[in-house]
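User: I'm curious whether this sequence folds into something compact or stays loose and floppy. Could you predict its structure so I can see for myself?
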Amino acid sequence: MNKLTVVLVDPPNDEAASVTLRSKTGEVTAFCHPCDLKAGDLIGNRLAVLDAEVLAAFLSDWPEDEKEAVSTEWIERTEHYSYRGRGRVIDQAEGLVEVQGFIVEMGAPCNGYVDFHIRRLDITTWETAKLESS
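Assistant: Here's the prediction. I'll summarize afterward.
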């Protein structure tokens, strides 16, 4: 499993914080509570959501060229912890979607690609996922 790097914790040393994380291909800011992370920490790559809407990006009966055209991962921030985008389902049973190097547990109604709107991106398992500090 790829690790995520903690880039920024704001405010530092606070029980609840905004944590900016970097994967190999992207960067997001997530809510963390309780939080004792610090810049330079590495954590496991599994984020969660407080609330998300997840829909299939295409239907199974679409032509292959149309499926391919909408099979591109992207994520954009819409509010402080909110995001919308398109990701690839990597484990439908566990609801895991990968987008720009981040694995997010948000529910997965199908295999393939999904469009999503995350209301709040969370770090909830950092206590067990914290790997090492710089």
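Summary: Residues 44 and 129 are 5 Å apart (CA to CA). The chain has a mean pLDDT of 88.
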